[in-house]
Amino acid sequence: MTYEEIAAFRTLIEQVERKGPHAAQLYAYETEYLAAPEGISVIVPVHNGADEMVELMISLANQSLERSRFEVIFALNGCSDASRAVVDRFAATSGVDTVIIESENPSVAQARNEALHLARFRQATFVDHDDHLSRAYLEECVSLSDYRSVIVSNIIKLENGALAEDYAQTVVARGFDPPISTAPTILRCVSASIR
C-alpha cells in the first residue's frame, strides 16, 4: 500500500469508529495524545550491553528524522559492566536528545515501563540494545503512525551478513501468540501511558 492509500484507509476507519458505540473509549486519550509534541521516543532497555550497543548507537545518530523530533531513553537495569559509560559517551557526543535512567533491578519489563513514563513524544518505540535500525526507521514510524495506530516493523536476523530469519514470515506462517484479538486491550493501556 502507498502512504496515500494507508491514509485514506485510516480516514475511513476513523469515520466508522467515531460513529460507533465504543467511540468514547477508543478516543478517550486523544486530547492528551495531541497535546504531546509530534515525534517519537526511542526506549532502549539495557542490561550489561556495553559490548553490544555500538551498532545501535551509530544507527540512532544517523537517523534521517530531524533530531528535534526524537529522543532516546536508555533504561539501564541491573548493569554491572561499562554500559553507563558507553551511554554517557553517546549522550555527550551524538547530538541526540538522550535521557538515562538506572535501576538496580535487572528487569526489562520494569525498565521499559519506567522509560515509557518519561517519554515526551506522541509515539514510542522499543528497541533492544543490540539492534540496528535502518536509516529511515524513525521517520517511517512517525509518518505512518497516528492516534489509533501501532506500527509494527519487520525484524530480520542476520548472521555473518546473510539473512537467517525473517520474523514477519515466521509470524505469517505460525500466527500470533496470544491471538491478535487481545490487542485492543493492550493498546489502550499503552496509549494511556504515553505522556
TrEMBL record:
Keyword Transmembrane helix: no
GO molecular function: glycosyltransferase activity
Keywords, sorted A to Z: Glycosyltransferase, Transferase
Leading EC class: transferase
Gene3D superfamilies xrefs: Spore Coat Polysaccharide Biosynthesis Protein SpsA, Chain A
Keyword Transferase included in the entry's annotation: yes
Pfam families hit by this protein: Glycos_transf_2 (PF00535)
Domain Glycosyltransferase 2-like: 41-149
Listed EC numbers: 2.4.-.-
Listed name of the protein: Glycosyltransferase family A protein
Organism per entry: Paracoccus cavernae
